[in-house]
Amino acid sequence: MKQVMSNKLVIALYTLPALVLILALVYVPIILTGYYGLMDWDGIGAMTFIGLENYIELLQDGKFWESAYHSFLLAAFSTLSLAGYLIISLVLANKLKGSELLRKIYLIPMLLSSVAIAQLWLKIYDPNNGMLNSFLELLGVENTPVWLADSKLVLYAIFIAIIWQYAGFYIIIYSAALKGIPESLVEAARIDGANPIQIAYKIKVPLIAGVIKVTVILAIVGSLKYFDLIYVMTGGGPNGASEVIASYMYKEAFGSYNFGYGSAVGFALLVICLVITWLIRKLTADDEEIQY
Amino acid sequence: MSNVNTQFKKSNLSVNKLEKSLGNRIGLGLLYLVLIVVAVFQIYPLVWLFFFSLKTNTEVFGASPFALPTDPQWGNYAKAWVDGGVGSYFFNSVWITVTSVILTVLLASFVTFAITRMEWKLNKLALGLFMVGLMIPIHSTLIPLFDFFLKVNLVDNPLSIILTYTAFNLPLTIMILLGFYYTLPREVEEAAVMDGCSIHRIFFQITLPMTTPVISTTAIINMIYNWNEFVFVNTFISSDKYKTLTVGIQNFIGQYLTDWGAIGATLMISIIPVLIAFFILSNRIVEGIAAGSVKG
What we know:
The complex is a heterodimer. By secondary structure, chain A is an all-alpha fold. Chain A has one domain: MetI-like (MetI-like fold), CATH 1.10.3720. Chain A is built from 14 helices and two strands, in the order ααββαααααααααααα. A two-stranded antiparallel sheet of chain A has the order 1-2. The longest helix of chain A is centred in the N-terminal third of the chain and has 31 residues, at about 60-90. Chain A starts with a helix and ends in a 9-residue tail after the last helix. Chain B has helices spanning about 1-20, 20-50, 55-60, 75-85, 85-115, 125-130, 140-150, 160-185, 185-195, 200-210, 210-230, 230-235, 245-255, 260-295. In chain B, helix 5 packs antiparallel against helix 13 (about 245-255), helix 9 runs antiparallel to helix 10 (about 200-210) and helix 11 (about 210-230) crosses helix 14 (about 260-295). Chain B is globular. In chain B, about 45% of the residues are buried. At the A-B interface, helix 1, helix 2, helix 4, helix 5 and helix 6 of A face helix 2, helix 5, helix 6, helix 7 and helix 8 of B. Chain A: Belongs to the binding-protein-dependent transport system permease family. Chain A: Pfam families: BPD_transp_1.
């Protein structure tokens, strides 16, 4: 048995293709992106080593900080919206009729490509013929907003589309976690006279704290690397009002051919994502895993 | 007996219902109202999209956006498919998605088998390598990947997309497979070893067939992710003949900026396959999404 199952040749044959792929296409590139950040490079010609110049420039680059601010704003909104998704999941968990169907309906937008979603919401926000402004006009609103062309509103408008896209995803995750709570615990609380709100708040939510932590990480890190939807809907505009870190990186590299500087931005994005994941895990690490 | 039991349960339930106060019922009604409003918010934009994909420009710009199409313009779909070249993008999406999914699921199954069933020293390290891969933001790899594919002459070659999809989907796929492999009893495989079965036969004829349920879960999740992927295709592919739907849609819309009907039809064409997959396999999809994140 042992001999067969520890055959080195077979192990190599089974794992090497996948290992080579992930090393070559994921790990080597993230190291290289930090290295290319040390270069002055237009992507085609030769690289010139310029030390930390790009990284120093990055720290003083107002546009970078503005896009980082937008990314963090989206992360904050996304984290706050988790509370709403959690409440919906808690309501659905009370064995309401049709809750399975509702959950599936909520999930549908998540299955569509960000490009299709972005194009659809471009039409919804269309100032003249869009669904939203026509609806507002029906309600008697005059001077309807121009949404994506308004630098004060654009980020919020995009955020609504993001909620639309991801609501079902988080509701599915929470629902799966809530299903894992033993019925006996809930029953015991009910016999002790707890009302549904108390059961939800004092028993169910603490029991799925681990999953909530994972969703907070997913929401924050996911928002920090947000790209497709914004790239298609506004391209970062108007006038940089919806620029985020990833779109700024893309623009610098593939738009202005500053591949060295773009790499530095990309590396900053990686570091920010890893630090935040580590920080959240660290901050919540003393919560003991709940056993039941 | 069971009949009596259900009978008993039913009468019990109805007593409960009677006991519920009016306030409770109103509360329940309000809850449903909120849940249904959310459902409408989630679904109505797609219904609206379907309607305007069937409208003429006069209807879009002249009539209320909430009106039904008076004379459904199925010609919009033909225009997108033939004149707009959406048919060719669609075909590319299909074969690139399918190839990558097969490659990903097969390689991930090999790795998961080796990690959970075989004994080797670097086992844990390899597993860690794949799991950490879940946290890497793809945008941080984009410039070096582009440079790499440029050097090996794979820019504007579908192979670059297939390899990248496979590499980036391996971590999630392995994670979902792992959960299933750990719960799978080893007795069958152990017996096969005793009978002198070769390891490859064990993998292909015993383990792989036993894992079909989880393979279909990972396959459908991979399929949706690949079908919808945008940034890699947008960066690595420049010729129209290799573009997939997500990037192709962008192209198409650039050309037909004001033709809402054709744009709507293109978007519908791109989302219909996913919707069909969802109606057939919604349980698997829900399972895959839950498994892919809860354990993370």
